[in-house]
Specification:
Number of helices of chain B: 4
Shape of chain B: globular
Order of helices and strands of chain A: HHHHHHHHHHHHHHHHHHHHHH
CATH topology of chain B: Non-ribosomal Peptide Synthetase Peptidyl Carrier Protein, Chain A
Number of helices of chain A: 22
Largest interface: A-B, 21 and 14 residues
Number of domains of chain A: 2
Helix content of chain A: over 70%
Radius of gyration of chain B: 11 Å
CATH superfamily of chain B: ACP-like
Shape of chain A: globular
Strand content of chain B: under 5%
CATH class of chain B: Mainly Alpha
Oligomer: heterodimer
Order of helices and strands of chain B: HHHH
């Protein structure tokens, strides 16, 4: 059941009606039941077993951690291991078995494949990480252990954020879920507009961009450097529109019920450095990694001196890559981001000296634009690994693009003559139109404008914006196609 | 109130001559204090005040006021 489907619209209406009819103290039950039905609708029984295991494990360990004076660290390690176990099994059992040469017909592999639908792990990576953060926070006495197992289950399962996050901290989400109230006009309005904005990003920008990305990445050897560069840039926009579109829809749905989820994106392609990019992209995951992995690693390796931070960075980003899947391209993508950060850290002084030498620091606006363009280029080079079908394919794409920059005269002089056909079509113009509208909204966000500002405008402006957005979704959108890209993670 | 001693340690590690630091100042408001240098600052504070923080305590710090309070509590325990 995807957010961009009619089934979900009917489901949401039913949950909203039950929620409306329920008394305040029973509202959480309607949301919990709705979330269980939402998860069960994927028809993967093993996922329900996993989520029950996670709830029971964290409920019991949370209470134990609250009471225990000794063995607290053992309880925490048990909890972290237990939370990671289902994710590791579902994600890596089959790839590891394959790497070890175990035949697919062997009894254990057959049993695993049959019971888990070849390792389907929808949502597991998100609520497992949330569960780990819960236990660490209880261990560190940042939050008290949750005494109501139902509330804890809803914290893990809350359907707007179940499939693709945001990964919510207990001190932010749990109190909200324990204090639900009747629908409020302000929340409904905000939620509906944000949901529509998310739908626009998904069905107008992401879906349309996907057509061209898939055409080029579907057969990379048949395409020129120009095509590959354009497709990679389109993929950067597709991925952002897809994931941030999903996030807007999730935040919008949660807001209908008065719940405020954490924002996951803050105009990431306006980042002026890779570190800045990671402060703006998939914020809930990068915050999680920073708090629960990078900083403990940095503390643990502090005696290594200057090696400490680079080592912690590479390990953190390698794990970030592997979190996305058991694939060497994700690992390279993660390590590449780690490497960017390390190089950036080690060359900070030299870069500052160079900027002063060429006088770029005296033109701050131009300096900012240069930094944004450079950061975006590095991010795109990393996205090649994220999107490519395999290690060899990614290497081929980067080699072709690299050669084009080594011999720019021969490659780009015939730019228009060899301009790939797909990008000259009318449907690409529609994709660009959608992108321009989305970019305008992004620029407004970059300049500090918020969605709430729209609600303070005259009614004619407000309603023109609402209908304009809705009509764009209906007229320009591509419906009934794929699921969200981060759904697989 | 942020003590001059704590402020001095922070400024030394971040190689700053002067910067206004108050209770509510968050790390992002101080040049050079980011997630990469956070632990470096904390370890320098630990060394200077002869205290030891838990990882969970370091992760939970929201502003310089939190750090000052943590230093005060730990110093009392160790003192």
């Amino acid at each position: 059941m995807q957010f961009n489907s009619m089934t979900f619209a009917v489901f949401l209406l039913c949950v909203a009606l039950c929620y409306h009819a329920a008394r305040d103290r029973f509202r959480w039950i309607t949301l919990l039941l709705g979330s269980v039905i939402f998860y069960a609708a994927f028809q993967q029984p093993h996922l329900l077993v996993v989520v029950v295991f996670i709830v029971v494990l964290n409920y019991l360990l949370g209470i134990s951690l609250d009471r225990a004076v000794v063995l607290r660290r053992t309880l925490l390690v048990t909890g972290i291991t237990g939370n990671l176990l289902p994710l590791l099994l579902l994600r890596y059992f089959l790839p590891v078995a394959q790497a070890l040469g175990i035949p697919i017909t062997s009894p254990w592999v057959m049993l695993f494949s049959r019971t888990t639908g070849m390792g389907v792990s929808i949502g597991v990576s998100f609520y497992s990480f949330q569960a780990i953060s819960y236990l660490i926070d209880v261990y560190g006495e940042a939050v008290p252990a949750e005494r109501n197992p139902g509330s804890l289950a809803l914290y893990f399962l809350f359907f707007p954020k179940l499939l693709q996050g945001p990964i919510e901290r207990a001190d932010w989400l749990l109190p909200q879920l324990k204090n639900l109230h009747a629908f409020a006009y302000e929340d409904l309005r905000y939620g509906l507009v944000l949901f529509t904005l998310g739908a626009f990003k998904k069905v107008v920008v992401a879906e349309r961009m996907a057509v061209f990305v898939n055409l080029v990445y579907g057969n990379v050897h048949a395409h020129s450097a120009t095509s590959l560069i354009l497709a990679t840039v389109c993929y950067a926009f597709q991925l952002y529109a897809d994931f941030s579109g999903y996030t807007d829809m999730a935040l919008g749905i949660a807001r209908l019920f008065g719940v405020r989820l954490t924002d996951n994106f803050r105009q990431p392609y306006f980042a002026t450095s890779i570190a800045d990019f990671w402060r703006r992209w998939h914020i809930s995951l990068s915050q999680w990694l920073m708090h629960y992995l990078f900083m403990p690693l940095q503390i643990a390796t502090f005696r290594w001196g200057k090696l400490s931070t680079p080592a912690a960075l590479i390990i953190t980003f390698a794990i970030c890559g592997l979190w996305h899947g058991a694939n060497v391209t994700f690992l390279v993508w993660g390590c590449l981001n780690g490497l960017y950060m390390v190089v950036s850290l080690l060359t900070k002084k030299q870069r500052e000296q160079f900027v002063r030498l060429i006088g770029l620091d005296r033109v701050p606006r131009l300096y900012t634009v240069v930094r944004i363009v450079l950061t975006f280029s590095l991010v795109c080079a990393a996205w090649v690994w994220f999107r490519a079908g395999g290690f060899g394919e990614a290497l081929y794409i980067l080699t072709v693009i690299g050669q084009a920059f080594v011999h720019p005269a021969s490659t780009f002089s015939a730019f228009w003559g060899r301009f790939p056909g797909h990008f000259m079509e009318m449907r690409f113009a529609l994709a660009v139109l959608g992108l321009l509208i989305a970019a305008t909204i992004e620029v407004a966000g970059y300049r500090g404008k918020k969605l709430e500002d729209l609600f303070g405008r005259p009614w004619a402006v407000r309603w023109a914006a609402y209908y304009g957005l809705l009509l764009s979704v209906i007229l320009l959108g591509m419906w009934g196609s794929s699921s969200f890209l981060y759904f697989q993670f | 109130m942020i003590s001059d001693e704590l402020k001095g340690v922070i400024l030394t590690v971040l190689q700053l001559d002067e910067w206004e630091i108050g209770e509510e100042t968050v790390t992002a408001q101080i040049p050079g204090w980011d997630s990469l240098t956070h632990v470096k600052v904390i370890v320098a504070v630990e060394k200077h005040f002869h205290v030891r923080f838990k990882t969970t305590e370091i992760v939970r710090l929201k502003n310089v006021g939190d750090l000052q309070r943590l230093v005060d509590v730990k110093s009392q325990i160790h003192g």
